[in-house]
Amino acid sequence: MESVNMHEAKTRLSQLVARAQQGEGFIIAKAGKPLVRVTAIDSPEPGQQKRIGFLAGQLSIPDDFDRMGEDEIADMFGG
């Protein structure tokens, strides 16, 4: 996570907020000491992951997936 000093954050606030909206949080520091973490409102809490449904609509499973390669597997086990 990028760390920016207070003056730089004031100068680049619009750019930093746009990046935070895209999921790239940042830390604002004063005199090198981290003060606050800035993230998008809908981003997951630290240590929490958004996992459920993250590939929704991106995968398709064939109807016969449970029978795929059954002949080869049977041959390997002498069936």
UniProtKB/TrEMBL annotation:
Which is an annotated Pfam family here? PhdYeFM_antitox
Q: Which Gene3D superfamilies match?
A: YefM-like domain
Recorded family membership: Belongs to the phD/YefM antitoxin family.
Q: Provide the function of this protein.
A: Antitoxin component of a type II toxin-antitoxin (TA) system.
Q: What is this protein called?
A: Antitoxin
